[in-house]
Amino acid sequence: MTWIEEKYRTVHENIRDYFHGMALTDPALTLQQVEDDLDCHYFRYGNNWTGRGIVGDTIITATIEALENVRADCLELLKAQQTGQNDSLDHRAQ
């Protein structure tokens, strides 16, 4: 694994780990936070006129992907709550 792949993996895992417990406790609030963060990061992703470089691009890309994954988890949890299921997403934390 190259150093850039390791950086991507580390950033992605850290973000997923940070939001995992929050999503299990309050998926609606977590969803709101994640969507706000995504708006900010997509805006930053589009503002690259000075050039972030490979490290900056890797970090922002990993961040966006992780936030999109958390968003999907929150939507799944909310759907499960609406249908009366109590399935947790502990298996997706990895």
Notes on the protein architecture:
- With 94 residues, the protein is mostly helical.
- The chain has one domain (3-89).
- 79% of the residues lie in helices and 0% in strands.
- It is built from three helices and no strands.
- The two termini are 18 Å apart.
- The model has no long low-confidence stretch (mean pLDDT 89).
Which labels suit this protein?
94 residues, mainly alpha, 3 helices, 79% helix, 0% strand, elongated
> What integer is the average pLDDT?
89
What distance lies between the first and last C-alpha atoms, to the nearest angstrom? 18 Å
Order of helices and strands: HHH
Contiguous helical run count: 3
Unreliable segments of 5+ consecutive residues: none
Short description:
79% of the residues lie in helices and 0% in strands. It has 94 residues and is an all-alpha fold. The protein has one domain.
Per-chain topology:
Layout: H1 3-25, H2 27-46, H3 53-83
Helix pairs in contact: 1-2, 1-3, 2-3
